[in-house]
Amino acid sequence: MALREAGWKGNKEAFDGINDTEMMLYLQIEKLGAHLNVLSPLIDRYQRGDQTFADEALRWLDEAEKTMSNLRLPEGAEMSMLRGRILRSTDEILSAQVNQPKSVLRKARNVAASQALDRAEEIMRARILEAENRLKFFEEKFSEALTHYMLSCRLPAKDPQAYDQWLSQIWSHMRSYEKTRPLILYMSASLSPSDRSIIMIRVLDRAVQKNINVQPRE
Fold first, then answer.
1. Which of 8, 15, 30, 53 could share a disulfide with 4, CB 3.0–4.6 Å?
2. pTM of the predicted structure, to 2 decimals
3. Three-state DSSP state, 9
C-alpha cells in the first residue's frame, strides 16, 4: 500500500518534518512492495533463458538486503545467505567433474537463482502481510475508540492550515478520555508516530466526510 493510498495525499502537511526513517509499517509496505514490483520482469528473464538472469538476481538480492537493512528488518540477513547459495551453486558440480560445459554450470546457477528469488519473495510478502494485518488491527481499534469518544465529546474544528496540530489535539483529548486512554497508550507504545498519524487520518477523514460530530470553525 503506497503512502498516498494510506492517507498521505491531501494531508502532506501532517507529515512535514517527519524523517522517512521514522516511517515503520507503512514504509515497509511501500518499500518492499516497490522492490517486489520489479521481480516479475526478472523472472521473465529466467523463463527466456537469459544469460544475465543469475547476475541480475544477485543484484536484486543485494538491493533487497540494503532495503531491508535500511528498514531495520532482520530478514535482510537472509538475502545475503541467498546470494551465497547462488554463488556456490556450481561448486558441487565442479567438485565432481572439473571440466563441465558452460551450459551446465549456467543452468545450475540459474536454477539456484530462481529458487533464491522464490524464497526472497516469500520472505518479503510475509513481512508485508504482517505489517498490513497489524495496521488493519490498529485502524479498526482506533475507529472503535473514536466512536466511543464521539458519543460523549465533539471533535475540535478541522483547520486545513494546521492539520498536524488538529491531529495532536485529538490524540491528546483521547489520551485523557477514560474510555479511550488504554488504547491510545497501547498505540503509542506499539506504533511509530507517523504510522499513528496515518491511521488517524484514514479514520478521521471518514468521520469528517460524514460530518460526524465535528465542531464548526468560528
1. 8
2. 0.79
3. coil
**CA–CA distance, 20 with 8 (Å, rounded to integer):** 13
Classify residue 8 by its DSSP letter: I
Q: Give backbone dihedrals phi and psi of 122, rounded to 5 degrees, phi first.
A: -60, -45
Q: H helices of the chain, where?
A: 3, 25-37, 39-48, 53-70, 76-87, 91-96, 102-152, 163-176, 181-190, 193-209
Phi/psi at 38 (5° precision): -95, 5
Q: Report helix angle 39-48 to 53-70, nearest 10.
A: 160
Which amino acid makes up residue 25? L
Question: Cα–Cα distance between 199 and 90 in angstroms, integer?
Answer: 49
pLDDT tens for 1-43 read 444 444 433 343 433 433 444 358 999 999 999 999 999 999 9
Contact 174, 184 (CB under 8 A): yes
As given in the structure block, the three cell numbers for residue 64 are 533487497
Written as one letter, the residue type at 73 is L
Q: At what angle do helices 163-176 and 102-152 cross, to 10 degrees?
A: 70
Please give the C-alpha separations between residue 112 and each of 75, 84, 105, in angstroms, as whole numbers: 19, 10, 11
Single-letter residue type at 203: V
